[in-house]
Design a protein that fits this description.
By secondary structure, the protein is an alpha+beta fold. About 30% of the residues lie in helices and about 25% in strands. It has helices at about 15-30, 45-50, 70-80, 85-95, 115-125, 180-185, 205-210, 245-250, 275-290, 305-315, 325-340, 395-410, 415-420, and strands at about 5-10, 35-40, 60, 70, 100, 105-110, 130-135, 135-140, 145-150, 155-165, 195, 200, 215-225, 225-240, 240-245, 265-270, 340-345, 345, 355, 380, 385-390. Strands 1, 2, 7, 8, 9, 10 and 20 form a 7-stranded mixed beta sheet that branches. A hairpin with a 4-residue loop joins strand 8 and strand 9.
Length: about 425
């Protein structure tokens, strides 16, 4: 039976970085590199290639606990230890040049996710990591002072230390499967509720059918029982079954744990104009153009179809003219423009989600080394853990940070915490 010093399960972002860090850590100690990286898919990094619409938003200059959800307090020490400049410095050592946009989102300079994957694979190969694909791990157990891993075909191998970086349930077409949670359970870990996050919000509102494909700039806010949970500005996209866009994706992370049937999404379609200014604009429209069709009230300010749907919601007939509108109707129109409500019935499924919310509680691992408190010699990294970030590179940053910590700690053993 094969025996390796370190086996990393999952060749995604966290796994590739963990394997590289482990190999480099062994070399620093003058020890032979014995690191095996296992992947259930035919190729490594399948999900990584799809990130950022193929451009790979690999980090964010503003990466900090405020942009994360889940076990944030437990994650803070690691995020502090591995800030963006440290992660980007690691990529620069590999030869990958990166650049940040005006919002702090970091991309490879050539805007190719394939370049990030190629850089990681080449660095792993150079460091002595052995990659084995189509080896999906089905079981893992602690046996005779080591980890016994078996593939889907029953092929066994042994490891002195093991890193689980299997990813989550989100975007299953890019993942081998969500078996990492079962592997963690087999070694004594618990798993919190798993939910799709960074996905669209479902709504049954009738106007969505007519607005399918439309885009607007808006301030989106998520409400629950009269309380505003979170809000963010950005582009909102309408579909037949709901609303999406980066700002809406980020709001979806706030939806877990509440009664979804009582949640609402509010859109402020003219966020740079206070209510009174919007009302004044509408009053001028009526005064200056009384003979225009009433459904053209918002034509000079909003997407035409969106403006028509607002008038439809206000029960204004197509035959009405602007001059027919009362002051009360104008007040309602201004109010609707500033607070257009959509009942929320849930989020998009796993197929549409960018990341998994939930996972192994961070209280069950060392906050700096990612070593399991349930089974010494086991390390966990990436999406498998109960932490998920906003859109904008935060989730990949977490993958790199946990991968670097887990891999280096696995190589150094008890010295791992100090060496990080």
């Amino acid at each position: 039976m094969e025996h390796w010093d370190i086996v990393v399960v999952g060749a995604g972002a966290a796994g590739l970085m963990a394997a590289l860090a482990a190999a480099k850590g062994l070399r620093e100690q003058g020890r032979p590199v014995s690191v095996l990286l296992l992947e259930g898919n035919a190729k490594a990094g399948k999900k990584l290639l799809a990130t950022g619409n193929g451009r790979c938003n690999l980090s964010n200059l503003g990466a900090a606990p405020v942009h994360y959800h889940g076990d944030v307090a437990q994650a803070a020490p690691l995020l502090e230890k591995f800030p963006p400049d440290r992660v980007l410095g690691e990529f620069e050592k590999m030869g990958l040049l990166c650049r940040a946009d005006e919002e702090g989102r970091v991309y490879p300079r050539n805007l190719q996710a394939a370049a990030v994957l190629q850089t990681l694979r080449s660095a792993c190969e150079e460091a002595g990591v052995v990659l084995r694909c189509e080896f999906g791990v089905r079981s893992v157990a602690w046996e005779n002072e080591g980890f016994l891993l078996k593939s889907q075909t029953g092929e066994p191998l042994k490891a002195s230390r093991c890193v689980l970086a299997c990813g989550g349930k989100a975007s299953p077409k890019h993942s081998w499967e969500e078996g990492g949670y079962d592997l963690a359970r087999q070694l004594g870990h618990s798993i919190t509720e798993l939910r799709p996050s960074l996905t669209y919000l479902k709504s049954p509102k009738k106007c969505l059918r007519a607005l399918k494909g439309m885009r607007v700039k808006a301030r989106a806010a998520l409400w629950f029982k009269g309380e505003k949970l979170c809000e963010e500005s950005g582009e909102v996209l309408f579909s037949e079954s709901g609303l999406s866009g980066i700002c809406v994706f980020n709001l979806s992370a706030c939806l877990g744990g509440i009664g979804r049937e009582q949640a609402e999404l509010s859109l402020d379609l003219l966020e740079d104009m206070p209510y009174r200014e919007v009302l004044s604009y509408l009053e001028r429209q009526v005064k200056n153009h009384p003979g225009y069709a009433a459904w053209e009230l918002f034509a000079g300010a909003l997407n035409l179809r969106v403006g028509e749907e607002l008038m439809k919601e206000l029960a204004v007939s197509r035959e009405s003219l602007l001059g027919d509108l009362t002051r009360q109707q104008l007040r309602k129109a201004a109010g609707l423009c500033k607070d257009w409500r959509f009942p929320v019935t849930g989020t998009g499924g796993w197929e549409n989600a960018q990341v998994t919310a939930g996972g192994v509680p961070l209280a069950e691992v060392d906050s700096l080394t990612m070593e399991s408190k349930k089974r010494p010699g086991l390390y966990l990294a990436g999406e498998l853990l109960n932490l998920d970030g906003d859109c904008g590179g935060y989730n990949l940053h977490w993958a790199w940070a946990t991968g670097m910590a887990a891999g280096r700690s696995a190589a150094w053993g008890k010295k791992g915490k100090r060496s990080c």
